Amino acid sequence: MRQLAGPLALHAGFFSAGYGLLATFGVLRDATLARWAAVGGLAYVCGVIGVVSVTIVLLVAGVPLTMEGTGVVIAMLAAPLVVVLLRARPALRPPPRPSGAEAWIAVSLVGAFALVFLFGLPSVGLRPLDGFDAWNLWARKANLLFWDGELPSALFRGEPYARVHSDYPYLLPTYEALHLRSLGRFDPRAFHLPLWLLLGAFVWAAGLLASRVTRPAVWAPLVTGAAILSIPGLLTAYADVPLAYLLALAALSAGLWIERRMPADLAVAATLLAGCAAMKNEGLVGAAVIVVGCWGAGDGPPPP
Amino acid sequence: MTLLLQVIGVLLVAAVARAVVGSDRRLRVESGAVTAVAVVLVGFGALDGAWVTTRSLLTERSANARLSPSEYQGRGGTIFSAREDFLTFVDSRVPRAATVHLACACSDERDWISWRLSPRRFTERPQDADWLVFYRVQPQDADVPAGAYERLVRFEPGFELARVRR
Asked: B84 with B150, same domain?
C-alpha cells in the first residue's frame, strides 16, 4: 500500500507545488478547467524544480532530508494555489473539440505517445540500474541522501570516491532520493520511474508551449517524435536526457517571452533555467547561452 | 565541454545560414522548408521508434520481473565480471552504518563495489574503517598489516572479510 500511496502523494505534491508557482507567475489567471489541465505538465516540471531546489538549500543549511520537511516545502509552494482557487474557481467550460485534420493528427500522435508512456510505466519500474554514470554519479548520491538524509560532500573528498564527480549538482539525486523515501525502501530498480514521469511531463509541457507558436501538424510530430527518440537515452538513467528536456522547455519559454513580452513566460523560463543549472554542470552552460540570447533579443522594442 | 562545442556549433550554423539566406522573406521560406524536413524526419524516426520501444519495454518487463534481487542488484557489475556472490555475502554481514576499507587489486571495479555496498562509507586507510574487505587479493599480499584485523572470514581464497581490531 505504502509503495503506491507514498509515490502518488509525493508526485501529486510536485503537481500542487508547480500549480502554486504557476499561480504566482500569473499563468493561471482567469483560467478555465481545460487550461488548468493543459498546464499540468509544466506545473509538474516547475514543481519538481521548486521543491527540490528549496530542499537542496535546506540540506546545505544543515536541515536533514525528511518526508515531513518535504511536505512543508510543498505546502508553502502550493499555498498561492489556494488563494487563486478561493478568489475564482476555474470555469467548467467544455474543452475545445479538435477541428480539422491537423488537430486530429495532433490528438492521434499525443494519444499514441500516451499509450507508449502507459505501457512503459510498469516496465521501467522493474528495470535494473546498469549504466556506469547512472550508479556511479547519480544513484550513489541519491542512495546516500536516502539513508543519511544529508549531503555527502565531506565523504566525497576521500580517495575512494575520487571519480564520483562531487561537483555535479544535486537536483537529480535529490529528486530520486525523495521518490525512494516515498516508496519507503531502497530499491535500485526504482530510479527509472521518476525519470519516466519527467518524459511524460516534458511532452505535456512542450506541447502546451509549442502550440502557442506553431501549428499542430508541426509541434505534435516534433514533440512526440523527439520524446520517443529520447527514450533509449532516458533509460540509461543519466542526467543528460532530463537536462535536454529542461533546456528545450526553457528555450521555448524564453522564446515566447522574447516574442510576446509576457512576464509569466519569463518567470517560467527562469524557473526552468534554474532547473537546467541544478541538473548538471553542462546545464549551466546551456542556461547561460539562453540567457545571453534573451539579453540580446530582449534589447529591441516589444513586437507589435 | 562537448555540450558547449555543440551549442557553439549550432550557433555558427545558424549564423552561416542567416548570412547565406539573406532577406527576411527568403528566411521565412527556408525556415519553413527546414521545419517540414525536420517534422518528416523526426516523425518517421519516431513511428519506427515507438513500435520498437514499446515492444522492447514489454519484452524487458517479463524478463526483468523474473530477476532475483541478487541479479538486479548486481547487473551493473557484470561489465567488470564483479563477484556478486561475494558482495551479497559482505552485504549481509556488514552493518549499513559501518565504514569499510577495500583492499583490491583492481581499478574501475572499486567504483562498482563502493556503490554495491552503499550506504557503507569507504575509507582511504584501513585503520579508519570498521571492516576490511579483501577482494581479488590474498590478505597477506594486501597493504594491510596482519595485526590490524580480527578473525578473517573466508568466502573463498582472495575474497575475505575481517573486522578491524580496536
From this structure: yes
Q: Which of A61, A275, A278, A247 is nearest to A169 (CA)?
A: A278
Q: Please state the φ and ψ torsions of residue A248, each to the nearest 5 degrees.
A: -65, -45
Q: Is B141 on the interface with A (CB under 8 A)?
A: no
Question: CA angle, corner A263, sides to A257 and A264, nearest 5?
Answer: 90
Count of A–B CB contacts within 8 Å? 124
In total, how many domains does chain A have?
A: 1
| B31/A contact by beta carbon, under 8 A | no
Q: How many CB atoms lie within 10 A of CB B63?
A: 11
Establish whether this prediction's ipTM goes over 0.85. Answer: yes
Beta bridge partners of B154: B160
Which domain does B29 fall in, by range?
2-65
Domain enclosing residue A74, as ranges: 2-92+101-297
Q: What is the pLDDT of residues A34-45, one digit of tens each?
A: 889 999 999 999
- 3-state SS class at B156: strand
Which residue has better confidence, A82 or A176? A176
With bands split at pLDDT 50, 70 and 90, how would you rate the model's confidence at B23? low
Clarify whether residues B26 and B85 are in a common domain: no
What's the distance, CA A243 to chain centroid? 9
Residues 70-89 of A with CB under 8 A from B: none
Distance CA B117, CA B119 (A): 6
| Residue A282 confidence (pLDDT) above 60 | yes
Residue A232 predicted with pLDDT over 70: yes
Q: Please give the order of strands across the beta sheet that includes B159-164.
A: B121-122, B99-104, B131-135, B159-164, B149-156
Q: What is the structure's pLDDT at B55?
A: 87
CB A177 within 8 Å of CB A145: yes
A-chain residue closest to B52, CA distance: A228
Average pLDDT over residues A211-223: 90
